[in-house]
Amino acid sequence: MSGRRRHIGAPERRARLAAGQRLAPSARAGSAEEVAGSLVALHGTDPATVYLAVGARLRDPSKTVADVERALYTDRSLVRMHGMRHTVFVFPAALTAVVHASTGVAVAARERASFVKHLEAGSEHDAAWLADVEAGTLAAIGARGEATAAELAQDEPRLRTQLLYAPGKKYEAWQSISTRLLRVLGMEGRVVRGRPRGSWTSSQFRWALTPAHPELPAAEAQSELLRHWLGSCGPATEADLKWWTGWKVTDVRRALVAVGAVEVELDEGAGFVLPDAVEPVTTDAGPWAALLPGLDPSAMGWQQRDWYLPPELRAPLFDGAGNIGPTVWWDGRIAGGWAQGKDGVIRWRLLADVGREAAAAVEAAAARLQEWVGEARVTPRFRTPLEKELAGPAPAKK
C-alpha cells in the first residue's frame, strides 16, 4: 500500500467484530451454517462450545441443538476435524479440503512419525504392522458406517494393543493404541468424528470415514484459508495470523501476498485487511451484550487481545494453559465471566464498571441463555478461576 496507511483503531475493530462475528442482535444468523461460515472455525475441543457459540449468534437460540446436530450429522454441511494448532474444530464442509492441505498434512506427518517411533520402542510391532491395523480399522468403520473406538476394537482386536505413555512420569499409564491411531487418521483426513454417544455435551464420539474431497496444493490452500479468516476477523497482525494458523511466518507472508492483503495501521502496529475491507465501517450496531462459552472463536481469535480484553481481566478468565473460559461481553469488550451452577442457574459477574445499562443487558442475555440451555448441564473442559468460583455453591440468601 503506497502512501500513509489507514489507521483502524480499537473502536472500529470492535464494530467490525460485532457485525462480522454475528454478535450484535442485528447481525445474528438464521442457521448453524451461517454462523460457521462467518467465523470460519468453531472450537470443537469441548463439544459444548460448538453449541453455545452457535446459540449466542442465532436469532432463535431455542433451535440451536437441533440445528447444529442437523448440520453435523444429517446434512454433513459442518465437519468436526483437526485443524490449526493440533486443535479440533468444526468447519464448513466446503473448507475441509482447504484445512487439510493447508494445515493437516504437515501436522499429521509429524504425529505419525512420533507414533511409529513410540510403537517400535515400546512393543514388538512396527510401521508395517500398524498399516495393517489401520486397514482393518478403516474397513470396520466402512462396514459399520459410524462406530466408537470400543466398537471398532470388537472388529479389529489389535486396537486394544497397550502402550506405556509418559514413562517415568507421575502420570505414566498404559493405554490402548486406538485413541492415538484414530487421532492420526483424523489428522490425515481419513476419518472424522461423527455423532456422539449421549447428549450434545458428550465427548465420546463415533468415527466415520471422511467424505471424498480434492487434494489441493499446500500454498493454494493456505492462501484460501487466510482469505476466509481475514475476511471474518480482519484486521489482524502478522503475529495474530501466525498464532491462529500455526504456520511458519514465511507461509503467512506468502499467503498475505497471494490474497492481495492491504497493510493498515493498528494500535499494536502494522495489520492487514483484504482489499475490499479497507474503507471505514459505517454501520453502528449499538451497544450489545453476549455470554460466550469457553474457547469461543471471538475470544480466541487473535493473539493480541488488548483491543477487546483489558489485560487486568485476564487472570480470572484464563486457565494455566492459556485457554479462556466463559466470558461476558459488553459492546465489543470482555467485561466479565459466567458459569452454570450445579443447580443449573446461569451466574455471571462483571469485572469492570460498565454501568447499569450494561448490567441490565447482560441480565437479559443470561436469561436468554438460561432458557435455551434448559435442563442441560454444561461444565467447561478447561476450568478457570472465575468459572470455578461462580459454579460453586449458590450464595446464601440474605
From TrEMBL:
<keyword id="KW-0238">DNA-binding</keyword>
<feature type="transmembrane region" description="Helical">
    <location>
        <begin position="88"/>
        <end position="109"/>
    </location>
</feature>
<dbReference type="GO" id="GO:0003677">
    <property type="term" value="F:DNA binding"/>
</dbReference>
<keyword id="KW-0812">Transmembrane</keyword>
<protein>
    <submittedName>
        <fullName>Winged helix DNA-binding domain-containing protein</fullName>
    </submittedName>
</protein>
<dbReference type="Pfam" id="PF06224">
    <property type="entry name" value="AlkZ-like"/>
</dbReference>
<dbReference type="InterPro" id="IPR009351">
    <property type="entry name" value="AlkZ-like"/>
</dbReference>
<keyword id="KW-1133">Transmembrane helix</keyword>
<feature type="region of interest" description="Disordered">
    <location>
        <begin position="1"/>
        <end position="22"/>
    </location>
</feature>
<keyword id="KW-0472">Membrane</keyword>
